[in-house]
Amino acid sequence: MIQIEKLKKSFRTEEVETLALNNVNLKVETGEFVAIMGPSGCGKSTLLNIIGMLDNPNEGYYHFDGQEVGGLKENQRTKIRKGNLGFVFQSFNLIDELTVFENVELPLIYLNVKKSEREQKVRQVLERMKIAHREKHFPQQLSGGQQQRVAIARAVVTNPKLILADEPTGNLDSKNGIEVMNLLTELNQEGTTIVMVTHSDRDSHYAHRVINLFDGQIVTESQNRAIGVQL
Ligand SMILES: Nc1ncnc2c1ncn2[C@@H]1O[C@H](COP(=O)(O)OP(=O)(O)O)[C@@H](O)[C@H]1O
Ligand SMILES: [Mg+2]
Questions:
Q1: What confidence tens digit (pLDDT) does each residue in 189-216 have?
Q2: SUPFAM superfamilies from the entry (predicted)?
């Protein structure tokens, strides 16, 4: 699904140029669950954002489902993103002015799904994430764990091939964190490919494979023996 070769990304500010990714090679097969780990500032989010087509690399190749996407313009990337990719972030990134229902409905509006179908899909995914009883609430009226379940509902309502998660349990207590990891594992077992950035050793055990980044480079890769373990 993902094939990245000799990828480089640098950021230029007024005085300095930071090389965030330096010659990264990475393959992710359909159906895999991959964790990316490494110290703060090593390039994890930059890599995830490029995989998620939120940003372009400076050099190298990125093939998504056989198509070169690293050099696409923003509007072309948006087109591929919609429907194919779902995002989950540490800070949930829900829209405060919209209700739970409306937050989850938004990606379907972008895809021009008609109203009756939207309602059915949103209700179904809210049930599944056990948050249907809060559909009229606003994000600020929910606990962190509930907000992340809404964010996951929003990420999966379009039935994406790939879910990208950047420290999805970073702001959660361990009970809610484990619940989120179990939800991601379930989605993976149904065939959704997952790439997740994490600081947590516990969370990394849910992945099939762990990639360690250091200073913008992949330094080690390890295969987890137990696949999809439930703690
Ligand atoms: N938009 C940006 N502008 C300038 N520098 C950035 C930007 N995004 C990331 N960086 C720099 O790139 C490096 C990698 O950042 P990041 O990918 O966010 O690391 P991580 O997620 O592993 O903590 C850091 O040195 C960071 O300061
Ligand atoms: Mg980060």
A1: 999 999 999 999 999 999 999 999 999 9
A2: P-loop containing nucleoside triphosphate hydrolases
CA–CA separation, 209 vs 221, rounded Å?
7
Report the atom number in ligand 1 closest to the C-alpha of 166.
Answer: 21
- What's the alpha-carbon Rg for the chain, to the nearest Å? 17
Q: How far apart are CA 202 and CA 112, in angstroms?
A: 39
DSSP string of 57-125, one letter each residue: -SEEEEEETTEE-TT--HHHHHHHHHHHEEEEETT----TTS-HHHHHHHHHHHTT--HHHHHHHHHHH
Half-sphere exposure of 124 (CA within 13 A, CB side): 10
Tell how far the Cα of 88 is from the centroid of ligand 1, in angstroms.
18
Q: Tell me which of 37, 45, 164, 214 to substitute to probe ligand 1's pocket, judged by most ligand atoms within 8 Å of the beta carbon.
A: 45
On whether the CB atoms of residues 207 and 196 are closer than 8 A, the answer is yes
Mean pLDDT of 25-47: 96
Q: Who's near 84: CB < 8 A, 6+ residues apart?
A: 64, 65, 160, 161, 162
Say if CB 8 and CB 56 are below 8 A apart: no
